[in-house]
Design a protein that fits this description.
It is a single chain. The protein contains 16 helices and ten strands. The chain is α/β, with parallel strands linked by helices. It has one domain: Spore Coat Polysaccharide Biosynthesis Protein SpsA, Chain A (Alpha-Beta Complex). The strands form two sheets. The protein has an eight-stranded mixed β-sheet with strand order 3-2-1-4-8-6-9-7, sandwiched between helices. Strands 5-10 form a two-stranded antiparallel ribbon. Helix 1 packs parallel to helix 2 (about 45-60) and helix 13 (about 290-305) packs across helix 14. The longest helix is centred in the N-terminal third of the chain and has 16 residues, at about 45-60.
């Protein structure tokens, strides 16, 4: 089978981008890999210098022999993260049928590309698998596993891959969620899949600018709709270097990875999802007490009265979103 292409998503972090490309270039099958580096114009004058510097870093790799091919794709205008990521994945996966996605703060091990390609080949026909993750948190329970891979519900954007057969069902406007937004049992089934997913889906519509910043929540919801999971390595193949104040997100707590730049051998197998472990794994990503409180409160209030919940959500976000208008959200945007 052909080697999956890498879509590298960049914006305004030149030194991070350089580190990411250096690590990718050191991968065992880098010379067999096509890389599509996506970039865009700056959002404002304050970003212009760093965006230009990042583009110069990308240009350094255009004529290098580290990869089979290195193509820079410039949107030619400013594109918010969410729409830009979706458009880039659409471009690459429609041409190649599969994709590996790396953002500008994800440093990879030497065997990351080999692992991802092995998984994309091995699990392509497995109807329980929606995507492959290169990341794994350093949890004692994971360190004690005898298998080299495990399965979870929760997707992580820190180095991932999938197939067009899965991505084709991706809906950035989560219409199925909107159609069931007042359904108590439907929300409970989503919360059982990923505890914080209902609240993050609500934020897409009620928090100003949230839809422009996000694509991951919709991806997680798509996995829920298809009842398909993520395969992760026991030993992480990636390390996130972006929590240094240069990115949009605060540093997480307890999500350190078991990363080794030299990689580690693996054996792939068709694994079963452990629901008990899934719950503990999911909690690992909800590390702030305030977030835990709001998740619990939102699910309780919605169960008591969905209408009351969304009225309170409008007050919280200082908006005036009407549920009936969400049916036409895609047309309006």
């Amino acid at each position: 089978m052909s080697v999956a292409p890498v879509m590298l998503f960049t914006y305004s972090r030149p030194e991070h981008t350089r580190s990411v490309l250096k690590a990718l270039g050191n991968n065992d099958i880098a010379k067999e890999t096509n890389v599509y580096a996506y970039t865009c114009e700056p959002k404002n004058d304050g970003h212009a210098a760093k965006v230009d510097e990042t583009k110069r870093v990308l240009a350094e790799y255009q004529n290098s022999d580290l990869f089979q091919n290195f193509e820079i794709v410039d949107f030619g205008k400013y594109m918010p993260l969410g729409p830009a990521m979706i458009a880039a994945v659409n471009d690459v996966i429609s041409a190649h049928g599969r994709i590996i996605v790396v953002e500008d703060d994800i440093v990879t091990s030497k065997d990351f590309l080999s692992f991802m390609n092995d998984c994309l080949n091995y699990y392509e026909t497995d109807k329980t698998v929606f995507s492959i993750s290169g990341y794994s948190p350093d949890m004692p329970e994971i360190r004690g596993m005898t298998e080299d891979v495990y399965m979870v519900h929760r997707a992580c954007p820190w180095g991932w891959g999938t197939w067009s057969s899965r991505w084709d069902s991706y809906d950035p406007y989560v219409k199925e969620y909107v159609n069931n937004i007042l359904n108590r049992e439907y929300r409970r089934s989503i919360a059982k899949w990923n505890t914080d997913l209902p609240m993050t889906l609500d934020a897409l519509f009620f928090e100003e600018g949230c839809m422009d910043k996000n694509w991951e929540q919709q991806f997680c919801f798509c996995q829920f709709v298809n009842r398909m999971n993520v395969v992760c390595p026991k030993l992480s193949k990636v390390r996130n270097i972006g929590f240094d104040g240069t990115g949009a997100n605060p540093a997480p707590i307890g999500l350190e990875s078991s990363f080794d730049g030299n990689g580690a051998a693996w054996k792939l197998e068709h694994t079963e999802l452990n629901e008990s472990f899934q719950k503990r794994y999911n909690k690992q990503f909800i590390f702030r007490s305030r977030t835990k409180f709001f998740i619990a409160l939102s699910n309780i209030i919605h169960f008591i009265s969905p209408g009351l919940y969304y009225r309170l959500l409008n007050k919280f976000y200082h908006t005036d979103v009407k549920i009936k208008d969400l049916q036409n959200y895609e047309l309006d945007h």
